[in-house]
Amino acid sequence: MALPAKTLVQAAANSGLRAVSVRHSSQAPKVALLGAAGGIGQPLGLLLKQDPLVAHLALYDVVNTPGVAADLSHIDSNAKVTAHTGPKELYAAVENADVIVIPAGVPRKPGMTRDDLFNTNAGIVRDLAAVIAKASPKALIAIITNPVNSTVPIASEVLKKAGVYDPKRVFGVTTLDVVRSQAFVSELKGHDATKTVVPVVGGHAGITIIPLLSQVTPSTKFSEEEIAKLTPRIQDAGTEVVNAKAGAGSATLSMALAGARFANALVRGIKGEKNVQCAYVASDAVKGVEYFSTPVELGPNGVEKILGVGKVSAFEQKLIDASVPELNKNIAKGVAFVKGN
């Protein structure tokens, strides 16, 4: 899927489509799903098709999109489904989109870190972002493609080059870390999982994933031993799934749920329903790092307010401090990739 940006943009130009973006009405949101035929894309498409707020679901991938679209179009919900296959049809997929969700890329296998995916997935995100910059520069972009700590800066640098960057509109989806934390905490403490809230800050890989167990709702006390076991389990939960699938892929179903939940939050924000979600965004919440995940308030313009990390424990502050050099390394790698290509 890693086609050169020039190829994708030229294909869009050759299609005769105008490089003008007009946002859809908030009453009829269009969501574009890029990587719709993949392991995350298919269940994510299923969940988005069921979202009553989505008016138009545009599915894009380099292969197999028509079959996925035909299947989803038979579901009796109101979202219109369109199929777009290959670089010549990418422009139409994202044109006028309100929200663009990107799970496109290759998954992890046992023994791989998220950073091992960089060479393939960095090119995919760069090339998709180049067309989004032309076709739908006002869209809210939710990036799932790993390594998120690097792919968000990659997309941002592409948009900057095109002169259309708005830091309020580019998101790294860290919702899966929140979902996992809430599942694990509710299981450990006997809480109702649907009413348990655990903020997760930092980034979306290894030691940059920082669950704020001191801020759990409902108010919950943890022993030092519980914190010492739960924190690394949350940080390494993705590897737990990769190893359990034994080479057959990474987290797809839980990631699809998390992606759909975040996309729904973005659409609700566009429609004027402000809500708070954790997301990896351009932020000044933590000194010394340009991108950081914290709770943010979402609204019609994307990020309406960065809420910061709040009051944290001494243990959590140490984790935040340790995450900064790792995040800076990931961010620098993404920026260098765009500037060197």
TrEMBL record:
Q: What is its EC number?
A: 1.1.1.37
Give residues annotated as binding NAD(+). 35-41, 61, 121, 144-146, 255
Q: Kindly state which reaction or reactions the protein catalyses.
A: (S)-malate + NAD(+) = oxaloacetate + NADH + H(+)
Keyword Oxidoreductase part of the UniProt annotation: yes
Identify the keywords attached in UniProt to this record, alphabetized: NAD, Oxidoreductase, Tricarboxylic acid cycle
Q: Which GO terms describe its cellular component?
A: mitochondrion
Lactate/malate dehydrogenase N-terminal domain location = 30-172
UniProt-annotated catalytic positions? 204
Please indicate if the UniProt record lists Oxidoreductase as a keyword: yes
Residue intervals of the Lactate/malate dehydrogenase C-terminal domain: 174-338
Q: Its domain of life? A: Eukaryota
Residues noted as binding substrate in the record, renumbered to the chain:
108, 114, 146, 180
| Alphabetical GO biological process terms | malate metabolic process; tricarboxylic acid cycle
Which PROSITE patterns does this chain map to?
MDH
Question: Could you tell me which CDD domains the record lists for this protein?
Answer: MDH_glyoxysomal_mitochondrial
List the GO molecular function terms: L-malate dehydrogenase (NAD+) activity
A Pfam family that the UniProt record links to this protein = Ldh_1_N
Family the UniProt entry places it in: Belongs to the LDH/MDH superfamily. MDH type 1 family.
The UniProt subunit note reads as follows: Homodimer.
For this entry, the protein name equals Malate dehydrogenase
Q: Which organism is it from?
A: Caenorhabditis nigoni
Taxonomy of the source species:
Eukaryota, Metazoa, Ecdysozoa, Nematoda, Chromadorea
